[in-house]
Write a structure and sequence with these properties.
Shape: elongated
Distance between the termini: 176 Å
Organism: Nitrospira japonica
Largest sheet: 6 strands, antiparallel, barrel
Subcellular location: Cell envelope
Helix content: 25-40%
Order of helices and strands: HEEEEEHHHEEEEEEEEHEHHH
Number of strands: 14
InterPro entries: EmrA/FarA_HH, MFP
Keywords: Coiled coil, Membrane, Transmembrane, Transmembrane helix
Oligomer: single chain
Structural class: alpha+beta
Number of helices: 8
Protein name: Putative Multidrug resistance protein A (Modular protein)
Length: 499
């Protein structure tokens, strides 16, 4: 009986040993399998579930002050670039635009009148100089004939007095011309500083009027709408957000201990919780954010006091998603993902970046048309107020009218009517009261002048200096000299050169 008991103990020990051996073998096989998997697969991948889909969230803000009169889109709706999202009450901007147009027109007419006056003064100066030459030659003849008694001294004295008076008139006219030249010299009507200032004030008013319509800067879906009819908004007030869903990426927050082998250009696999195992997205590492979340926090930690906790920080890694996969399997910013990066691939330098800002989400041209339109309309207003004396019709006036019409028609019909660029009568605000107020376009009313050589070389009258004067005309001979015995008239500025 004792022998049977010993046999049973040996049998039990053998069974336990076999079981232990089987468990050990299973563990060894599992370890070997895991080691093989880690060596061939896991060691070449870095995985994290702290990764989320993100994209551009484009804010739409008011550019002008006004009361919201219409909200044209609701959340989840798709908008195209340039669509009108919100309209503001335009009455104040319309009135300011009219005032600016009036100031521009008045300034153009005032400056244009200076050019016309200068031309008239120039013509008067030329006539007086011509008359001065005639009197000078007469006086010279009288001087030569006086010694022979053919001409009396009184006749000669009268000629000299007349010559002196004409010289004074010429100097007065030259001073008048110089005063006008100081205001408009070296410019044209359209280039005059006063016109330029009024023009830019008009452009500002035109832009303010155009910005009563808030446009969509990019195409995308409306989200976070805050605009409400009746609200009074100021420039910079956020009205809504536009989310373009055709350009998204993943931000994977990796531990700093996992960044050693991460390089831009390495492939990645992303599983979005929205689709689970049904679809795996493929992406490419674009770059590493230059810092963890701590330095960019609202209140960065201060570890200089010595009171700190050593924790492993995480660094965001940007991974681009394939555009074709996004179109076939739409995702939204904020979705959770499980992301794996294949670190076995060489990739590029850790200092490089594959991110690009050359897509439609990074630029817009919807506001450029506003400035182009404002400048065109301003040119039309200027052309409609530049005229010659007594001309308000004819071919040149038609050209001026066509210039403004072309500027107004440069805005598409939807821009002028549907987008609020017309007044209640259906007429563009800049065309109101225009009537037949278009005039002749003239580039300049002053004839070309020779270069300014300075006062020392610009004779005030033909009796001073020689050569060509400032109008390009041949100057007269030297001043006439009084003959002996003829007294100088009291108050005369002409000195006798005869001893």
């Amino acid at each position: 009986m004792t022998q049977d008991s010993g046999t049973d103990d040996v049998s039990l020990r053998r069974q336990r040993n076999r079981r232990l051996l089987a468990v050990t073998a299973a563990l060894v096989l599992a370890g070997a399998a895991y080691g093989t998997y880690w060596w061939t697969v896991s060691s070449h991948w870095v995985q994290t579930d702290n990764a989320y889909v993100t994209g551009n969230l484009v804010p739409v803000a008011a550019q002008a002050t006004g009361i919201i009169t219409q909200v044209r889109f609701e959340e989840t709706q798709f908008v195209n670039r340039g669509d009108v999202l919100v309209r503001l009450d335009e009455h104040e901007a319309y009135a300011a635009l009219g005032r600016a147009r009036g100031r521009l027109g008045e300034t153009v007419r005032r400056i244009n009148s200076l050019f016309l006056t200068q031309r008239q003064v120039d013509e008067k100066l030329a006539a007086r100089r011509a008359r001065l030459e005639v009197i000078r030659h007469d006086a010279e003849r009288y001087r030569k004939a006086s010694p022979t008694g053919a001409v009396s001294k009184q006749t000669l004295q009268n000629a000299l007095d007349h010559l002196q008076a004409l010289e004074a008139d010429v100097r007065e006219t030259e001073a008048e011309y110089d005063a006008l030249d100081a205001q408009i010299g070296g410019t044209t009507v359209m280039e005059h500083p006063a016109v330029e200032l009024a023009k830019h004030e008009f452009i500002e008013a035109h832009l303010e009027y155009a910005r009563q319509r808030i446009l969509a800067p990019v195409s995308g879906y409306v989200a976070k709408r805050k605009a409400q009819v009746g609200d009074r908004v100021k420039p910079g007030a956020n009205l809504m957000t536009i989310v373009p869903l055709d350009h998204l990426w993943v931000e994977a927050n990796l531990r700093e201990t996992e960044l050693g082998d991460i390089r831009p250009g390495q492939p990645a696999e992303i599983r979005v919780d929205l689709y689970g195992d049904k679809h795996t997205f493929h992406g490419t590492v674009e770059g590493l954010v230059p810092g963890t979340g701590s330095p960019f926090a609202l209140l960065p930690p201060d570890n200089s006091t010595g009171n700190f906790i050593h924790i492993i920080e995480r660094v965001p890694v940007r991974i681009a998603l394939a555009a074709d996969e996004i179109r076939e399997h739409p995702v939204r910013p904020g979705l959770s993902t499980v992301t794996k990066i294949r670190v076995g691939e060489p990739g590029q330098s850790v200092w490089s970046s594959l991110a690009k800002a050359d897509t439609d989400e990074y630029q817009t041209d919807v506001y450029g048309d506003e400035l182009t339109s404002a400048e065109s309309v301003a040119q039309g207003v200027i052309a409609g107020n530049v005229r010659t004396v007594g001309s308000n019709s004819g071919p040149t006036a038609a050209i001026a009218r066509a210039t403004e019409d072309e500027a107004l028609s440069a805005q598409a019909p939807t821009t002028r009517s549907d987008l609020g660029m017309t007044d209640r009568s259906g007429e563009h605000p800049l065309r109101r009261n225009a009537g037949e107020d278009s005039g002749t376009v003239i580039p300049s009313t002053v004839p070309p002048r020779s270069p300014d050589l300075g006062e020392a070389q610009r004779p005030l009258s033909p009796s001073i200096g020689a050569g060509s004067d400032r109008f390009g005309q041949q100057a007269s001979p030297p001043a006439f000299s009084r003959p002996a015995g003829v007294p100088e008239r009291a108050g005369s500025h002409m000195k006798s050169t005869v001893p």
